[in-house]
Design brief:
The protein is an alpha+beta fold. It has ten helices and 13 strands. It has a single domain, classed as phage-related protein like fold (Alpha-Beta Complex), CATH 3.90.1690. It is 30% helix and 26% strand. The strands form four sheets. Strands 6-13-10-7-9-8 form a six-stranded mixed β-sheet, sandwiched between helices. A three-stranded antiparallel β-sheet has the order 3-12-11. Strands 1-2 form a two-stranded antiparallel ribbon. The chain is globular. The termini are far apart.
Length: 333
Amino acid sequence: MAFANSSISDIIATNIQSRSGELADNVTNNNALLRRLKERGNVKTFSGGNVILQEIMYNDSTTSNTNSYSGYEVLNVSQNSPISAAQFSITQYAAAVSISGLEMIQNSGKEAIIDLLDGRMNVAEAQLANRIGGDIYLDGTGNSGKNITGLAAMVPDSPSTGTYGGINRATFSFWRSVAYSGLTNGGAAVSASNIQQYMDAVAVQLIRGTDKPDLIVCDNNYYRLYLQSLQSIQRITDSGSGMAGAGFASLKYYGAGMASDVVLDGGIGSAATANHMWFLNTKYSMFRPHKDRNFVPIGGERQAVNQDAIVKLIGWAGNLTSSGCQFNGVLTA
């Protein structure tokens, strides 16, 4: 069946394609963690394979050949190569932009069609960005295990069990993050009067030399408690720099030799898990989109056999990965 305007499908495709780079930026800029990863250069594409491999280095005490020695003492030259890789599934996301035959007739001029599509693409792009940004906080089990493997898997509330990136945390202690519960470990629920004490308790466990958390991401509740804890000294950040300059509600945390951004990644419709504060060393985290599926059109036009309409899909594929879970922590209730 011929459409009233045969060039409509090309208009849809070219408009999606021209906006794909902008959409990729909007997604990363709309989430505090993804923005920091982009600033670090840790948004890295992959080109293929059935999984995403993330190289890791770790210390295996059973194979280590490092030791002191004296004079002609025989040295240990046995193999010591504790280099491996975590593996992550390739998750896929899509949003649809559609236009009916009637709408083509009603908006038959090219400019009118573009205006109509712009509005619909804005909606589709916002939905895609919000969905991925929200799933960043979850564990990947949602939607029958098809979601991004997010912070709830990378930095879980119970880090000594379960498998992440194909590595069993019960077996390999280096793959465990830090979890600190206000009630269980601190003896009282998190409040404005004790939240800094609890933050210190988490932070000191995450430092190795110059490695330390650079980003602390909060839900609404814990950001509010931290803000209240600072009000007596009226500590604020420079609105022209860092996360605050990027538009995020941002404070600073100075403790345990650290100077980390404390960011509210909540607000209206917050997807951040309630009563959680994540301490993240973003040096060891990656956002890994596929090079050919980074918010671009998927395939050609799709026309239903029993409908007078065209549908185009905007797609993304990839995952959030980690090469050093032990450098991250979470404060919970």
